[in-house]
UniProtKB/TrEMBL annotation:
KW Oxidoreductase (keyword) present: yes
Gene3D superfamilies xrefs: 3.30.465.10, CO dehydrogenase flavoprotein, C-terminal domain (3.30.390.50), Uridine Diphospho-n-acetylenolpyruvylglucosamine Reductase, domain 2 (3.30.43.10)
Superkingdom assignment: Bacteria
Keywords: FAD, Flavoprotein, Oxidoreductase
Molecular-function GO terms, alphabetical: FAD binding; oxidoreductase activity
Residue intervals of the FAD-binding PCMH-type domain: 1-221
Annotated InterPro entries: CO_DH_flav_C (IPR005107), CO_DH_flav_C_dom_sf (IPR036683), Diverse_Substr_Oxidored (IPR051312), FAD-bd_PCMH (IPR016166), FAD-bd_PCMH-like_sf (IPR036318), FAD-bd_PCMH_sub1 (IPR016167), FAD-bd_PCMH_sub2 (IPR016169), Mopterin_DH_FAD-bd (IPR002346)
Protein name: Xanthine dehydrogenase YagS FAD-binding subunit
Keyword Oxidoreductase tagged: yes
Length: 340
């Protein structure tokens, strides 16, 4: 690990003033410290924000919920209000990491974790995300964990966060404080950037912006929510594909559907055309098969990820069958309700 300056802030304006292109925020550090040890990330300054006020609470705002950026994954997943009104989020977090990591990892840090592409981690390989302009070794290399959608010739990496996928399906927003003190909110589906020709720039954040909270809209009472994750092993591996599904059936037809997909794109993926196919229709295996085909119609950008197309189709179908009651097994489905 290279040497760096350490700045511990007690006030958010001070923290913002210490940030810049050569600085990085540290809170739980579960991803950042690993990357610093192998010199994939080499910030000249770490800005510790763990002592900032107002970022460690989960607070009601009417029927909405504000989750501070420093709320740990353990605290968030176990909160009774989350488990009642937004159970999908709790399930996704619990599927994402061991208890030890959840105890340290924060809400803001989870959103900002870096890709697990092996070429990003290997400093001997070309990687435009790690070293802009050097090329993308994944283009001609092994690519089993790479993305299916939203890639560019400069980057094929997939985003690994389970929590971000759930938050996207829940239509959450990210609260951001600029160095000027201005506060803005950005919907989850607009928070991440596609790789384009600048894959090193992953979000809409400026170098001195600070994520202060995640905002959950009012619970969608009566919806069925499920998070289905396919991975190489059951013990906290990153997803090969995942599906976050929120569905409501009324009078035998699908009245609402909000779907997000993980580990298949540079950011949590959505396909509104699939949701439009479902709404207004009676749940059926034929309908879900057609939805799966529509979702995966585009060819894989790398031959090693071709297997993800049928895997994603089957995962979507399984999630929809559970959420609509077609499946005899519904052990992974929760009904959202207004928290007490």
């Amino acid at each position: 690990m290279r040497s760096f300056d350490f700045h511990q802030s007690g006030e958010i304006g001070d923290a913002a003033g210490a940030l810049g292109r050569e600085a990085a925020i540290i809170a739980g550090g579960t991803n950042l410290l690993d990357l610093m040890k192998i010199q994939v990330m080499t910030p000249e300054r770490l800005v510790d924000i763990t002592r900032l006020d107002g970022l460690s609470a989960i607070e009601a705002d009417g029927e909405n919920l504000r989750i501070g950026a420093l709320v740990t994954n353990t605290h968030l997943a176990g909160d009774s209000r989350i488990r009642a009104g937004w159970p999908l989020l709790s399930r996704a977090i619990l599927a994402g990491a061991s208890a030890q990591i959840r105890n340290k990892a924060t809400t803001g840090g989870n959103l900002l974790q870096r890709t697990r592409c092996p070429y990003f981690y290997d400093t001997s390989q070309a990687c435009n995300k790690r070293a802009p302009g050097t090329g993308c070794a994944a283009q001609g290399g092994a690519g089993r964990m790479l993305a299916l959608f939203g890639t560019s010739p400069d980057c094929l990496a997939a985003h690994p966060s389970d929590m971000a996928t759930a938050l996207t399906a829940l239509q959450a927003s990210v609260e951001i404080r600029a160095a000027s003190g201005e506060i803005r909110t950005v919907p989850m589906h607009e928070f991440y950037r596609g790789p384009g020709d600048s894959p090193d720039i992953e979000t809409v954040l400026a170098p001195d912006d600070i994520v202060t909270a995640v905002l959950l809209p009012a619970p969608r009472a009566g919806t069925k929510q499920t998070y289905r994750k396919v991975r190489d092993r059951a013990s906290y591996a990153f997803a090969l594909v995942s599906v976050a599904a929120i569905v409501k059936v009324e009078d035998g037809r699908i009245a609402e559907a909000s779907l997000a997909y993980g580990s298949i794109a540079p950011h949590p993926w959505m396909n509104h055309a699939v949701e439009e196919m479902l709404v207004g229709q009676a749940p059926s295996d034929d309908l879900f098969a057609r939805a799966g085909e529509a979702l995966t119609a585009a060819p894989a950008p790398h031959p090693d990820t071709e297997y993800k197309r049928p895997l994603l189709r089957r995962t979507l179908i399984a999630a929809l069958r559970e959420a609509t009651g077609l499946s005899e097994s519904a052990h992974g489905v929760d009904t959202a309700r207004i928290p007490a």
